[in-house]
Amino acid sequence: MEFLKALGIAKDNCGTSTGSVWINTKGAAIPSYSPVDGALIGSVYATDKDGYEQVLHTAARAFAEWRNWPAPRRGEVVRQVGEALREKKQWLGQLVSYEMGKSLQEGLGEVQEMIDICDFAVGLSRQLHGLTMHSERPGHRMYEQWHPLGIVGIISAFNFPVAVWSWNTMLGWVCGDVCIWKPSEKCPLCSIACQNIINEVFTRNDVPQGVCNLVNGGRELGEWLAADTRIPLISATGSTRMGKAVGAAVGARLGKSILELGGNNAIIISKDADLDMSLIGCVFGAVGTAGQRCTSTRRLIIHESVYDAFRDKLVKAYGQLRIGNPLDQNNHVGPLIDKDAVNQYLASIEKCKSEGGRFVVEGGVMEGAGFESGCYVKPCIAEVSNDFSIVQHETFAPILYLIKYKTIDEAIAYQNGVPQGLSSSIMTLNLREAEQFLSCSGSDCGIANVNIGTSGAEIGGAFGGEKETGGGRESGSDAWKAYMRRQTNTINYSTKLPLAQGIKFDL
Ligand code: UN1
Questions:
Q1: For the chain, which terminal residue's Cβ has fewer other Cβ atoms within 10 angstroms, N or C?
Q2: pLDDT in tens, 105-133
Q3: Angle at the Cα of 496 from the Cα atoms of 494 and 500, rounded to 5 degrees
Q4: What is the pLDDT of residues 350-377, one digit of tens each?
């Protein structure tokens, strides 16, 4: 495992770091087992209360300094982080693939997504623009400016163990914030690798200790972060259940949160779709990352006139899928993250059957040589009705539901008829249908695509969704504004002090 050494990962690792200072905590060891082969890769010591306090204290002190660095200078540091990631792309991609279980192609893609957000953040560091307004009063000027917010707490999920952290962190840093990362307990070693990469760049650039911080642990640690009034912004990615708890705790103290939670993403296959092209988008969307992206395609809403033909194409394509070690580039589908996920997959299949679902590609757990970890499952397809309770629910596994429709209005109603609202697509060459899907009475999701799948968004757009997806936006466009505080400034350069709204007040 050359990549472990290259990324500075030991058998036992401190899980708490404030800048290049690793804090020896007395928390329990969090073991990291690879879903690829079931091996114990290494372990990370959880952050205890003392370690947590030390991190918070150093982060607050670092912020007082870092916020005064000119933003383009902060951007220059982030540029170097992007360079370091380019150098380590192969190693980090392999670690992501081995610890999380996604295919090496997707592991490398995830690191590329980090590099892309670095590039984006570098440009942004010279574009943290505010507006100017015309004052209603003579001799007055009004404008707004954006200031750093403070400490940003980032709670990330196992399925994108490095990229989603980097979306938040790179933007936060150019905005002048300092970041504390709590990665998923299921992929703690990825966080150690990232911290090592950053430490090298930061030390070289004399970045204050405490701009980049890492804490490791479970739910309790998440609760400390969410309740901590010293942290003005919490950005959390994960299940809707987790997001509701974090949102409530942060809201109770009137903090800000960015929530990126569950999806239940559908692709509408219109009668006017290019079926061959649609097939790739649907299969990648459903089985990529073994169905463990928040953007994974869970439902296909197919027009009755092409339903049988498209279902047959899907069944044929699923027959060609190669399931196995994700580091072997010949395989399309790797394992689920752990046995709990396998049990949830199995329970969802049972529930679907009990509600009347008809499986056209059967699921099941892979057995035999190469599958000893017990985490490899067969991607499967079921014909269902959109109102089945299991179809309304996000199962983080490669189970694809097929739903038949007659009219485009009906298809859009199905697409929107779930509690989640992250990503959506329509496959059609019909301009009217495409535009209806994108109109305000079309898709209700944060992401709506035409002729591409639901997953694999680029970093340049704002990423996030509505309803139970949580409403937050990360990554591109103007998502950076959530990481800063807006200040409106009015300056009087006249010799009088006129009041707004024409109010007279003379002494
Ligand atoms: C996630 O699953 O939490 O759009 C993020 C995509 C990726 C990001 C997914 N760029 O599928």
A1: C
A2: 999 999 999 999 999 999 999 999 999 99
A3: 95
A4: 999 999 999 999 999 999 999 999 999 9
* Ligand 1 pocket residue status of 237, Cβ below 6 Å: yes
| Domain hosting residue 346, numbered range | 265-450
Q: How far is the CA of 295 from the centre of ligand 1 (A)?
A: 6
Whole-angstrom distance, CA of residue 388 vs CA of residue 476:
35
Q: How many domains does the chain have?
A: 2
Using the mean position of ligand 1's atoms as its centre, give its distance from the Cα of residue 502 in Å.
Answer: 52
Cβ burial, residue 271 (10 Å; 0-12/13-18/19+): middle
Q: Is the pTM of this model over 0.85?
A: yes
Task: Return the best residue to mutate from 106, 293, 452 for the ligand 1 pocket (most ligand atoms within 8 A of CB).
Answer: 293
| Residue from 14, 175, 179, 294 carrying the catalytic annotation | 294
d(CA 73, CA 479): 21
Tell me, in angstroms, the distance from the centre of ligand 1 to residue 23's CA.
Answer: 32
C-beta separation of 200 from 84 below 8 A:
yes
Q: What CATH number should be reported for the domain holding residue 52?
A: 3.40.605.10
